[in-house]
Amino acid sequence: MPEIWAGLDIGEKHHHAVVIDADGKRLLSRRVMNDETELLQLIGDALEISRDVLWAVDINTGIAALATGLILNHGQPVAYLTGLTIHPPTPQN
Q1: How does pLDDT run across 41-72, given as a tens digit for each residue?
Q2: What's the confidence (pLDDT) of residue 87?
Q3: HSE value, Cβ hemisphere, 13 Å, CA-based, for 19
Q4: Count of CB atoms within 10 A of residue 9's CB?
Q5: Dihedral angle at the C-alpha atoms of 6, 9, 13, 14, nearest 10 degrees?
Q6: Nearest C-alpha neighbor of 55 from the set 41, 71, 44, 70
Q7: Lowest CB count within 10 Å: 13, 36, 72, 80, which one?
Q8: Beta-strand (E) ranges in the chain?
C-alpha cells in the first residue's frame, strides 16, 4: 500500500490536486494550471512528502495527457479512477 495518494481532478485549463496519507489526512490541496512548470512543481512537492505515491486521475485522455506523461516520466504509478466510482448515481425510486 502506498504511503500517500495524490489525486488530480482534471480540467481543461486547470486541475485540482489533493494529496492524502493512509489516515485520510490532507497533506496538500491546490489548483494547478495545466502547464508543465506548475505540474512539475506539484509532482516535486508530492515527492518531497514521500517517494511512495500512487497518483490517480479522473480522465485518461486528451487534457490529462500532460499531467499523466509528466507523472510517468518521474517513474510514478498512475491509476484511472472514474468520477462515477467516486460519486455513483443515486437510485431513483
Answers
A1: 999 999 999 999 999 999 988 999 999 999 99
A2: 61
A3: 20
A4: 16
A5: -40
A6: 71
A7: 13
A8: 4-9, 14-21, 26-33, 53-57, 78-80
